Amino acid sequence: MAHLLLNDVSVHFGGLQALSEVSFELRPGEVLGLIGPNGAGKTTIFNVITGVYRVSGGEVAYAGRKLAGLKPHQILAAGIARTFQNIRLFTAMTALENVMVAQHCRTRAGVLGAVLRSPAQRREEARIREQARAALDFVGLANVADQVARNLPYGLQRRLEIARALGSEPNTILLDEPAAGLNPSESRDLMDLIRRIRDRGLNVLLVEHDMKVVMGVSDRLVVLDHGELICQGRPDEVKKNKRVIEAYLGH
Amino acid sequence: MTRESRRAWLTFAVALGWFFLLLWPLTGIKADGSLTFDQTLAIFWRVAAAAAVLVVFWRLKRKGSFDGAGRGLATARAALARGISVVPAWIWWILLAAGALSYPLLTNRYGQDVAVTVLVYICLGLGLNVVVGLAGLLDLGYIAFYGVGAYTYALLSVNYGLSFWLCLPLAAALAAIAGCIIGYPTLRMRGDYLAIVTLGFGEIVRIILNNWMELTNGPKGIISIPPPSIYVPELEPTLHFVPFELRKITYAYYVILGLAVFTVVAVHRLNFSRIGRAWEAIREDETAAELMGVNTFLLKLLAYAMGAVFGGLAGAFYAARYRFVNPDPFTFIESAMVLAMVVLGGLGSIPGIILGALALIALPEVFRGFELYRMLAFGGAMTVMMLVRPAGLIPAKRMGQRSEERD
Fold first, then answer.
1. What is the CATH classification number for the domain harbouring A68?
2. ipTM over 0.85
C-alpha cells in the first residue's frame, strides 16, 4: 500500500540542522497537514521525500521500500508526485503538454518508435493524451488545455501544477503551499479539490500556511518548528497544544 | 523639420561616418605614395544613397503617409492567405516535392553544387537543433560529429571496401557513440560551462584527426574515397545487376535530398513524441523536469547522441561527395556557422532552420563579388535580425499541436 514512513529523518547542510530526527507516517487515503512557522523545515521534508536532498540520518520508506539513493524521477515512478511552492511549470508549453510530460515515467516508446511512428508508439501517445486530458478535466482545466502555461492566470497555474502531479498517476501527492496567493473563493475550490483527490484513494501530504485550508481538509496534522517535530494529532487537538501555540505566537 | 526627425537624420549621418571608417581596408596606396579612395567611395556612395532612400521612406511611414497603402497591403495579404488556405496542404507538398526533384534538371552544375551544400547544412542545422533548440543545451563543438561521420565512411570504404549505404548507419552509430563519450562527462555541466567544454571537445576531435597519422593520414587526408553506388539491372547477356557509381553532382543532389528529407521527418517526429516533450521540459526547467519523472541525464545524453547521428549521416555524405577528407573543414568556425543557422532560423523550428541554411549558404554565393565584405554583411544581417525578429526568421510555433494527433 501507499504508506509513507519517515523514521528519525535528519538533514543538515554543513553546520545547519534543517531537520532533526523527524518521524511521522502518511497513511493510505488520508490528508496529512504539515505546518509550522517559516523555516521550520517543511519544504526540506518534501525535498527529502522526493530525492532532491539526501538524508543525513534516518530513512524514508514508501510502500515498504526504502527510498534512499533513488533519483527524483525514480521516486515519481514509485508513485510520489509533488507540486512546488514557487510555481514551476514548463511555461512555454501548453497546459496539456505540461501534464503530458508527467506521463513520461509511465511510458516506454523509444527513438525508433517515435521516428517510425510504430503502432505501439501511436497507441501510447493516444493513452498519454487521454490520461492528461483526464487529469486536466479532474482539476477543471479542460477548457484551457491548449493555452500556453505562461498565459494562464495565477490561480489556474496553481491548479495546473496539481493536474501535472496527478498526470503521473501517483498514489501519493505532496502539495507545497497550494493555497498561496489564492483568494478565498479559490481556496474553497482548492479544499474541495483536495478532498476529491483523497476520495480517489490518494494520500495527500499538505504544506500550507492558510490555517483555514489546512484545518479544513486535514485528517491529521504534523507540526514542525526549527526542524523538530513538536506535535502531531487531530486538528482540534493540535490547536490546543501549548507548544504549537508557543511556536506560532512566541513566548 | 521637427526635432525628432532632425535627431533621426543626425543619427543617420553618424552611422554613415562609422560605415566610412569600416571601409578603410579598401584604401589603396599609389606608386607616388598618395592614398587613393576610389574603391572606398564607389561603395560608400552607393550604400549611402540606398540607406538615405530607406531612411526617407521610414520617416514618411512614421508620419503616416503610407497608412492607405498599408491597409491595401493588409487586405491583399489576407486575400492571399485565404487563397493559400483554400488549396489543400497536400497540393503544396506535391508542388514542393516536384520542385525539389526537378531542380537539377533546371539548373547548371554550379546551381546544383550550391543546392547540395545547402542541403548538407540543413541536415547539420536540424541535427544541432535537436541539441540546442529542443533540449536547450548549447553545443559549440557540433562539427566534430560531422567529422566522425566523414572519417567513418572514408576509412571503412577505402580500407575495407564497404558500400556507402552500409556505411551510413555505421557512421550514424559511431557518431552517436562519440556523442555519448563526449556527452557523458560534459552533461553534468549547465549553461556557459557546457558550451566551453563542448567547444574544447570539438577541437580535440579535430586535433586527433590531424595527428593520428597511422589511422587518418593526418593533414594529408584520405583520397580516392568511392562515391555511392547502386546496382542497376542489365539485360545483356542475361538479366544481372551491375554496380553503377553515382559520380555526378546530380546524383549526389538526390542522395543528400533523401538524407535531408529523412532528417526533417525524423526530427519532426521526435519533437512530437514523449521524448520531444521531455526535451522541451528539460529546456524549460531541468529541476522540475527531473521531479516530474524525466530522467534528465539520460535524455540529455540521448539529445546529444541524436544530434550526433544526423551530423554523422551528413558527414558520410560529405566524404562520398568530395571523395576526399582531411581535418581542415571541421573547425570551430563551421560549428559557429551551423549554430548561427539554427539561431537565425529560429530555435526548434524546422522551416526556420531550412530558411536559415538557405540564407547563410545561398546568400553569400549571390554576393560573391563582394567577397571582402561578406562577413560584415553577415554580422550586420544577424544584428538586424536579432533586433527585428529575436525569435528567428520563422519562430517555432507554440500550439496544442504537439499534443494533437496530427502529422
1. 3.40.50.300
2. yes
